[in-house]
Amino acid sequence: MNYKQLDIQKIKTYIRSHPDGVAVEDIIAHSGAEKLRVYPALFELEQEGWLTVTEREELGSPKRVRIRY
After folding, report:
1. CA–CA gap between residue 5 and residue 56 (Å, rounded)
2. What is d(CA 4, CA 20) in angstroms, rounded to the nearest whole number?
3. Which of 20, 49, 51, 57 has most Cβ atoms within 10 angstroms of its Cβ?
């Protein structure tokens, strides 16, 4: 079983349900994905062009994201 891919699917499903964007903290708390895999998965999805980071923390980590249309 590929837990990384399962978590990416959970994250995608959660982001899709919030078309105006969602806070990364909410993804961690409510998506069902393993919290340690959320930031790497978001980075990967951003690199693929699947999502857009709309707000970043001071050191560059994503704070708010939305699906890229």
Report:
1. 24
2. 25
3. 51
Write down the pLDDT at residue 1.
84
* pTM, entire model: 0.94
Asked if 41 and 3 touch (Cβ cutoff 8 Å), the reply is: no
Q: For the residues 16-33, what does the mean pLDDT come to?
A: 97
Helix (H, G, I), strand (E, B) or coil at 28: helix
Q: Is 11 exposed, middle or buried (0-12, 13-18, 19+ CB in 10 A)?
A: buried
Quote the CA–CA distance of 8 and 31 in Å, as a whole number: 10
